[in-house]
Each structure stands twice: as structure tokens, then as C-alpha cells.
Amino acid sequence: ATLLLLNGPNLNLLGRREPEIYGDTTLTDIVKQLTEQAQSLGHELSHLQSNHEGVIIDRIHQAMTDEIDFILINPGAFTHTSIAIRDALAGVNIPFIELHLSNVHAREEFRQHSYLSDLASGVIAGFGVNSYSLALTAADQLLK
Ligand code: DQA
């Protein structure tokens, strides 16, 4: 199947950004590892990171044209703010998993609401870099 990995704002800083919360692995390393994992499962993975809400929304729309089967998304702070990303995901009607490196439920109150979770196939949070591979494993199961 064809999968799309989306990473939202500030995730380009992974490895340098608050390493006590987000770990010291870079996004480049995560994408490399996930691309390999996808290939070994017989899938194709494309990736976009953007700090811009509209760019993420455009990529979600393009996923419909590209016939993407499944989306893995770490929306970063847009999780807690973006009705527009919610509407985009609902609009294209492509199943998705919401994922977070940190356990958002153990953090500030404002991180405990997500505009996406109720539309998601599932949510994975709190496993650091492993949240990505766990999400891919779950997507693989759902695609079977
Ligand atoms: C995050 C959690 C969000 O609350 C935060 O704004 C991020 C990263 C995570 O992966 O833990 O940017 O999505």
C-alpha cells in the first residue's frame, strides 16, 4: 500500500528541541527508519514535514489524487488548534493514525485536547521515536 507520513510544526527541530521531552533522534533518522520499515512490510512511504498549516492541508488534499491508502500524522501543536486540518482529513476520507512522541495526556492541560483524535483509526502517544514505528505497525495491520 502507499502511506503518507506527515509531521507538523517544529518537528524539523527533533534531536535539538527539548531533548528531555522529545529525545535526541533527528527527523531525518526517523524518516529513514520508517521508510525502511515500510519497505520491509511491502509498502511505500512518502513524507512531508511543514511548519505551515496550509502546506499540510494541501498535502492532505493531494493524498486523495495520489491515492494514498493511509496517513500517519504527528500534527505537532496543530493537534490542539487546527479545525482546518481536521476538516481536510475528514474531507479526503483517508484513514489515519494520530501519533505523538510525548504522552500529551501527562503534560499541560492545553495538550489534552485534540481536534483529530475522534476521527482517527487510533492514537499513539508517549513512546518517543517508537511511536512512529508502532503507528506503522498498526497501519500495516489495519491495511490487511
Ligand atoms: C507533539 C506533542 C504536541 O503537543 C507538541 O505541540 C508537539 C509535539 C509530540 O509529538 O509529542 O509539537 O505532537
Automatic annotation (TrEMBL):
<dbReference type="GO" id="GO:0009423">
    <property type="term" value="P:chorismate biosynthetic process"/>
</dbReference>
<dbReference type="GO" id="GO:0009073">
    <property type="term" value="P:aromatic amino acid family biosynthetic process"/>
</dbReference>
<dbReference type="InterPro" id="IPR018509">
    <property type="entry name" value="DHquinase_II_CS"/>
</dbReference>
<feature type="active site" description="Proton donor">
    <location>
        <position position="100"/>
    </location>
</feature>
<dbReference type="InterPro" id="IPR036441">
    <property type="entry name" value="DHquinase_II_sf"/>
</dbReference>
<dbReference type="GO" id="GO:0008652">
    <property type="term" value="P:amino acid biosynthetic process"/>
</dbReference>
<feature type="binding site">
    <location>
        <position position="74"/>
    </location>
    <ligand>
        <name>substrate</name>
    </ligand>
</feature>
<feature type="binding site">
    <location>
        <position position="111"/>
    </location>
    <ligand>
        <name>substrate</name>
    </ligand>
</feature>
<comment type="function">
    <text>Catalyzes a trans-dehydration via an enolate intermediate.</text>
</comment>
<comment type="pathway">
    <text>Metabolic intermediate biosynthesis; chorismate biosynthesis; chorismate from D-erythrose 4-phosphate and phosphoenolpyruvate: step 3/7.</text>
</comment>
<feature type="binding site">
    <location>
        <position position="80"/>
    </location>
    <ligand>
        <name>substrate</name>
    </ligand>
</feature>
<feature type="binding site">
    <location>
        <position position="87"/>
    </location>
    <ligand>
        <name>substrate</name>
    </ligand>
</feature>
<protein>
    <recommendedName>
        <fullName>3-dehydroquinate dehydratase</fullName>
        <ecNumber>4.2.1.10</ecNumber>
    </recommendedName>
</protein>
<feature type="site" description="Transition state stabilizer">
    <location>
        <position position="17"/>
    </location>
</feature>
<dbReference type="Pfam" id="PF01220">
    <property type="entry name" value="DHquinase_II"/>
</dbReference>
<keyword id="KW-0456">Lyase</keyword>
<feature type="binding site">
    <location>
        <begin position="101"/>
        <end position="102"/>
    </location>
    <ligand>
        <name>substrate</name>
    </ligand>
</feature>
<comment type="similarity">
    <text>Belongs to the type-II 3-dehydroquinase family.</text>
</comment>
<comment type="subunit">
    <text>Homododecamer.</text>
</comment>
<keyword id="KW-0057">Aromatic amino acid biosynthesis</keyword>
<dbReference type="GO" id="GO:0003855">
    <property type="term" value="F:3-dehydroquinate dehydratase activity"/>
</dbReference>
<keyword id="KW-0028">Amino-acid biosynthesis</keyword>
<feature type="active site" description="Proton acceptor">
    <location>
        <position position="22"/>
    </location>
</feature>
<dbReference type="GO" id="GO:0019631">
    <property type="term" value="P:quinate catabolic process"/>
</dbReference>
<dbReference type="InterPro" id="IPR001874">
    <property type="entry name" value="DHquinase_II"/>
</dbReference>
